[in-house]
Amino acid sequence: MTRTPSRPVPLPSSAEQERLELELLLGQPMLGPSQLRPDLLSELGLPLQRWRQLGACPTASPRAGELELAIPHHWNDEQKQRLSLELAEHDLRPRFQLALAEEIQQALERAIAIPEPGPSAETSATTDPAPRTPTSDPAQARNAARTSQQRSLTKDLSLPNTGSVLQEVSDLEDLEVSASEASSSANASPIVSLVDRILIEALTSGASDIHIEPQEQALEIRFRIDGVLQKHFEDLPRGLTPAVTSRLKIMADLDIAERRLPQDGRIRRMFRGRKMDFRVSTLPSRSGEKVVMRLLDSGATQLGLDTLITDIPARQTLRELGSKPYGMVLVTGPTGSGKSTTLYALLAERNDSGINISTVEDPIEYTLNGITQTQVNRDKGLDFATALRAFMRQDPDVLLVGETRDLETAKTAIEAALTGHLVMTTLHCNDAASAIARLDEMGVEPFMVSASLLGIVSQRLVRRVCVNCRISYRPSQEELSRFGLVASLESEVTFYRANITGNAVENCCPACNGTGYKGRVGVYEMLRMTDPIAAAVAKRQTTDVIRRMALENGMKTLLGYGLQLVREGHTTLAEVERMLLTDSSLESERRARSLSTLTCDNCGAGLHEDWLECPYCLTSR
Prior knowledge:
Layout: H1 15-26, E1 30-31, H2 48-54, E2 57-58, E3 66-72, H3 77-88, E4 93-99, H4 101-112, H5 121-127, H6 138-148, H7 175-184, H8 190-204, E5 209-214, E6 218-225, E7 228-231, E8 236-237, H9 241-251, E9 263-271, E10 274-285, E11 288-297, H10 305-308, H11 312-322, E12 327-332, H12 339-350, E13 357-361, E14 372-375, H13 384-391, E15 398-401, H14 407-418, E16 422-427, H15 434-442, H16 446-452, E17 453-465, E18 471-473, H17 477-481, E19 495-497, E20 517-528, H18 531-538, H19 543-552, H20 558-567, H21 573-579, H22 583-596
Parallel strand pairs: 1-4, 3-4, 12-16, 12-17, 13-14, 13-15, 15-16
Antiparallel strand pairs: 2-3, 5-6, 5-11, 6-7, 6-8, 9-10, 10-11, 17-20, 18-19
């Protein structure tokens, strides 16, 4: 936290620190203990016990019927109105000021010197700001049952109802050390501890994303693990939404006062000796600001192509594309499909002291020694296209562009590929063939694409079935027919399904925690540019024509690759259906099978590759 001209930075984890940060958060001054006047309570007409129930304390004697009152910073309008009506009966008009709820209660305890009363009906009606909802609804009962099976993040934290945003820490603070110190400190901020626990749990569980979503009745936290969102904790009180989001904004160096516009930032912390980046995105919603964080481990061990790609021909094709001296290689797929990991694996194989490799990324997801890596900084005018133009004056051999999302970046990358450089970049589209149409939609001339493009890689990630608890079974003909498979041709294949039990079940699988899946494996589709395909691209042929030509050239579809992983026991038919099965993908796979099946030109009978003539009509092949 920066030092202000009027006030020095207080010690961490102190009440003074909390007041300072709440002033920054709420834009209003916060009173200290010395400004509270509980000695005036006896002059105000209400019983002392009632003041204790209300949780408010005077700060000065009434003047002309106006009473200055310190109230907790989390009070809502309904509570303020209720207190105003009660004081109006004694001809008093309150003027509210804010203070810490704990310090108000301590002042009232010292003045009244009575033991803590039990919750009465009057107390509950007066001080409980959150309305209670009935639990007779079966849907709510089921939700309550699920919640009881989830771990609590806040069980040992004294959380306020809203608003407290505390200690800002340095960029490279260790998360586990911070959480441990917060737990052992009596004055530690509960919001800081809560947020640290969320981040640590996400890192420990291997999550790729954190979703903090305010709902109408609660604050929901979900982790994306192996591509699927999962709830690990019970819901938090909705009143904590401003405090949690503001804490994350402070950590990400965002504007905590701006709640009407989306914002993007980054949090960097150390975790078990590794530098972790959290890419933070905030979005205003009806119930509050939603925060989504992408977890990036810049110090993670990079996987090689041998580990990423199980299919040998596909792996060889990608290696050949990456070994070319010039041209452009496109890797396509949705967000979170492993495109960057594939490109980094390809770069690692090309990384040699004899060539100059430069990358421009947003953000830098992995750190590679011997490679110049540049971070996009749009606030300063450094975008992908600007960095690419600068690279061209840096004597490059291989260039990596994190994402091609506009015409300027696409044209600059293609011009680099046409002038003797190998350019690797990513693109968002559904499959390999549709990347051509995506570039055309951006405004790139088809003749430039056909002249520069070496090949297109489309990929997805499917979950690996847990090898410790997977269940072998024989799928029905109806299930197989959905994938275009014939039961008689798959009789020797062992199919597996996931053993999904949930972590609430006793003796659930410890490897996958009852989810039935552990880890993910890549699914790839390789479209290699040939002269006929390049000619078709230059003539602006349709995506369907280009896809048909690629299939005739031996391209394996995403669905075909996924079914091969099923046959090898890596994943399940249900997972392939969830990620890969569409009408167009099934049609492409059926077309690929028909092209790869040998038939007699005379009688149409099926043939084996080693047959020199048809055994049915004796026609030579």
